[in-house]
């Protein structure tokens, strides 16, 4: 750390080094580390009225975590466990969908599209994200509603006769989530694929490889770091999304973040909300690390 | 198996730009054929056209007599070696070599056997498990060749594969490439801007300029009997003197230089000139001699300076409003020439080419 600071100070001057150093420290320590420590500490306390805080009843406890697993003591807390499993499952599904959608786009952007068309593709990708996240979610709701454009078009074309409830079937939710973080998938993949020497693709083609083989053996291994980086971000953010599930989720399906939200805001049980938030974080991180081990991605590749 | 390659009036245009202009030639099976030309002359485009990455705008590419239109690079009996080799950095040497077999679904054991065979051919036996980055430049070069040979193509296309190597290695690889070609007996089509490479390795050379083939010939004829001013000046060093044709008898042309002096040379490309045609006579530096009493075809000149290069001396001279270069072998006698000396040169008309004054290659 000291060496890094000295290096920056030597190259850019002491003022810049102090600014970067203090900004980083503020960002990491005050905005990330401290609140997380507070959350972790809080999650091991009882939810006490202010009068009893600091009193004899204010002791360490595992009860908030125990509640997540056992509920109020009679068997497993199947509702909450199921919500977590479902959240993780859907987040994985959304990540895979995004991988499938974004890899071809990133590849075309990096290796086929030139000049004007490349700029148009990038604009087309970025501009919709100027619209606020909640508005975008509502736009999906309108699109997928029973009298929405998709139902109207489908029925007008005679593809189906009764409006299909995309909201209840969670199609709208999956689509909204998949769209929400698409840029965070495309750009890491684009960065990785763009660095690939185009001659390698042509060489593989020349040696008889089909397009599938070119991608499987040449492009994908090369882009693995970018894919991992994009997948990690999309998975983490999807699992932690709140607006899209609130607006687009079916009436009977809860997202795990909604449980966290309820504990904090409706039940005013901050310790339990903290415990739930920590559970989500730990499970997601464990899954990401597991995925990296399975696909043999070195940790440094994520930063690329 | 070897196959002929026929380029039947091939023209390639990109928008309004003509990269290759009506190239019509045929390459025999088992031949080492080079396209030689400056960068931007269209030689790489032509190679990409033969390999299938570019379709001709007009004309046909025939390989083994079969029209290749609409047949992709992966379906042609050609293998292309890229300028930067395009080895796969994440695969081992053996996996690189066996890649063309892998994509054809050859079993792992057979792939390994063939890779070992090829590693033997390129004198890298036992190094199959190394990473590509662990090899030296020359070794990578040979791996690229082995990879191209893995599926036994009929034609090997090489796009300036030696340009990234240092001089020593390049000279060594020339001999090696030629030896490999003789050993496997394939048709090699070689692209280069380095005349040394083209002359040393090739059976025949096609000299290209601005999308047009200037001359196709055996290397000695390219050097000794250039058919255009471009070829004369692009291939090897030469001296050019401009003048007007005085007379022609059979192949021998009398050229009147600006001073009024008349010199003799051979009409390049069996041309027939009329008196008064603007022509240039090209004489190689090593073919200029110091005149003796009985020499004819004389040229008075004065020495500008002398460069000593060990085995030879390069002497810069002024004659007929032009600068000339004369190369003398170092025969052990001390140099008796000094700047400012006046002397007389002569040359054999048989080795001097008289060509229409036209675009010359920039030296």
TrEMBL record, chain A:
Residues 84-291 form the ABC transmembrane type-1 domain. Keywords: Cell membrane, Membrane, Transmembrane, Transmembrane helix, Transport. SUPFAM superfamilies: MetI-like. The keyword Transmembrane helix applies. The chain crosses the membrane at residues 12-38, 83-108, 120-144, 171-190, 226-248, 275-295. Its main location: membrane. It is found in: Cell membrane. GO terms for cellular component: plasma membrane. It is a multi-pass membrane protein. Pfam families: BPD_transp_1. One of its GO terms (biological process) is transmembrane transport. CDD domains: TM_PBP2. Belongs to the binding-protein-dependent transport system permease family. CysTW subfamily. This is Spermidine/putrescine transport system permease protein. It comes from Arboricoccus pini.
UniProtKB/TrEMBL annotation, chain B:
GO terms for molecular function: ATP binding; ATP hydrolysis activity; transmembrane transporter activity. Keywords: ATP-binding, Nucleotide-binding, Transport. Pfam families: ABC_tran, TOBE_2. The lineage of its organism: Bacteria, Pseudomonadati, Pseudomonadota, Alphaproteobacteria, Geminicoccales. InterPro entries: AAA+_ATPase (IPR003593), ABC_SmlMolc_Importer (IPR050093), ABC_transporter-like_ATP-bd (IPR003439), ABC_transporter-like_CS (IPR017871), Mo/tungstate-bd_C_term_dom (IPR008995), P-loop_NTPase (IPR027417), Transp-assoc_OB_typ2 (IPR013611). This is Spermidine/putrescine transport system ATP-binding protein. The keyword Zinc does not apply. The keyword Nucleotide-binding applies. Residues 5-235 form the ABC transporter domain. GO terms for cellular component: ATP-binding cassette (ABC) transporter complex. One of its GO terms (biological process) is quaternary ammonium group transport.
